[in-house]
Amino acid sequence: MNLLERAANRRQAALGSLDAANQAALGQFFTPVAVARIMADLVRLPESGTLRVLDPGAGSGVLSAALVDRLRRERPNLQVSLTAVELDARLWPALTETLADCAAESAVRTSLVKSDFVQWALHTDERFDLVIQNPPYRKIRSRSTLDSDLRSAGIAVPNIYAGFMALGTLLLDAGGGQQVSITPRSWMNGTYFGHFRRTLLASFGIDAIHTFQSRSEVFGDLGVLQETIIVSAINGPQPNTVRLSSSVDHRDEPAVRRVPASRVVTDDFVFVPASSQDAEAIEWMACARHTLADLGMMVSTGRVVDFRSREYLAYETADDAVPMVYPSNITRQRVVHPRDSVRKPQWFRATEPVRTKFLVPAGTYVLVKRFSAKEEKRRLVAAVWSDDGRRPAFDNKLNYIHCAGHGLDPEVAAGLAVWLNSKPVDDYFRVFSGHTQVNAGDLRQMRFPSLDQLRRLGESTHDPEEAIRRVMGMTRMEAA
Prior knowledge:
The chain has 480 residues and is of the alpha/beta class. The protein folds into 2 domains: 3-274, Vaccinia Virus protein VP39 (Rossmann fold, 3-Layer(aba) Sandwich), CATH 3.40.50.150; 298-479, Adenine-n6-DNA-methyltransferase TaqI, Chain A, domain 2 (Alpha-Beta Complex). It has 17 helices and 19 strands. It has helices spanning 3-17, 20-26, 33-41, 62-74, 92-106, 117-123, 145-152, 160-170, 194-203, 276-284, 354-358, 410-420, 423-432, 440-445, 451-459, 464-471, 476-479, and strands spanning 50-56, 79-85, 109-113, 130-133, 178-184, 204-212, 228-235, 241-247, 255-260, 298-301, 313-314, 321-325, 330-331, 334-335, 347-349, 365-369, 382-385, 393-394, 398-402. The longest helix is centred in the N-terminal third of the chain and has 15 residues, at 3-17. It is elongated and about 80 Å long.
């Protein structure tokens, strides 16, 4: 067996020795060997000198082994100093063996730091040329010790994986250091990771991105369904082009292409146009220039969490009852209330001040499902709630678009629904958003037609795609 095969065997043995509860507590997800190879291939190798490498949360050492395996083949004379940091004592024997293997194979100088990476990174004076990592994944509790420690270094993130990425950038040498990370895609847009993303893009350029078309296969042996992505970032200005590669999963040969950086990196987003169709979706959206805020509109999440409000919910209507609207009341882009197939109580009964807290003023609203069902082909599913004179209650699994807390112009609302339910906008949203759900923050950051264009969309009797083409002044080629 070669170096990487032996490391793979240690990975399997290490997985068998760990219990699921402890893995979850530490956020551990061991890197498959094929993924490690992809990550190692993204590393920019110097022709000579010394390469100082850091592997944070190294686990059993598969990433280190994959890199050393490539170095042995392509740069056998390159001097390498490898530092692996690992907190879990149960992994130290396997990691020690892998590091010893690396040293024996390629005369790599290795060091094992048996410590919590965050604490070590905040206090070390060492600097590196390359950080290659598969960071842990777990949420950071606000005001926890971890949260405070990271904030002391200017790092404000909601999940530990972004904390590892931020610390990795701080430990890179200023002269063009590189970080290659496999993480969830969620940091690339949205408000939760806004501070982290802006800080990263201010001093690092995105060099390469690798995507996996299959969400479930990459960490399949660990039962992970999170959408993962590999990103290479270079310390310095944004390169003019970005290398994009994509494979069905980690075992397939990737398709590779280079695109202008402007199609991937903006002032506050990182798009992932994994295919030419994705790139076309981004270009198509250039026809829309307005945010909801520009149009005087806002988006909020429904106020009623049904299991916390059971005492106010009813299956039968009454004089004091108002509609309780769920995602399941939306069918074929229309709101049907009451709907026979909905098994939940579809009426809300309460007196003031409860009604003020949970209900919205009577009016016309655009409802957008926060979660799409498996059988639905589109991520964006919207419908218009029409004013029937009663103040409705919207479920927490719905977003609703409004005007300063009140209803919308009915024609504008109809146009918004046409826009959001169109295939081109849904295609764009999938490239734009790294989430499986539709967050209110995503809708706030998206672009929309003008109010006049939305009214015309709402009034049009044409097929939705044709209506958009006509209203936005597109040729048939542009619309396609």
